[in-house]
Amino acid sequence: MTPDTPDAPDPADHRTRPRLTGPALRLTVLIGEQDTWHHRPLYSEIVHRAHTAGLAGASVFRGIEGFGASSIVHTSRLLSLSEELPVAVVVVDTEERVRAFLPELADLVPDGLVTLDACEVVTMAAPAGTHEEGKRTS
């Protein structure tokens, strides 16, 4: 680019991307709450990498009970000593963008379960700062 030419929009910058609606792909990563990546919670590492990659959204959901490949049931019930509760990291974006993100998970999730599901985005929250805190927009 020349100094007179404005920089191209950064595809990872959500402010320059149109809002996601219509057909999409949902990536779900099922891991344990205590799983880490370089002393950081694995779920946090996945969310931050998804954000850096410019994906439309990611959320982490903490399970109250579940089991995986080990067949050991982990639960949050009061008398249980389990601290390894299930965690689901859910990422939604276009199929192309989600599939491009999959290699990021190859080293991060050697023991978890990764699934892909077709979905449809009906509505997406407005970008931060577009409406007053605590008030709904029409």
TrEMBL record:
Membrane-spanning parts: none
Q: Which residues form a coiled coil?
A: none
The record, for InterPro entries, names: N-reg_PII-like_a/b, N-reg_PII/ATP_PRibTrfase_C, UPF0166
Q: Which residues form the signal peptide?
A: none
Query: Do you know which Pfam families this protein is assigned to?
Result: DUF190
What's this protein's family per the entry? Belongs to the UPF0166 family.
- Could you identify this protein by its name? DUF190 domain-containing protein
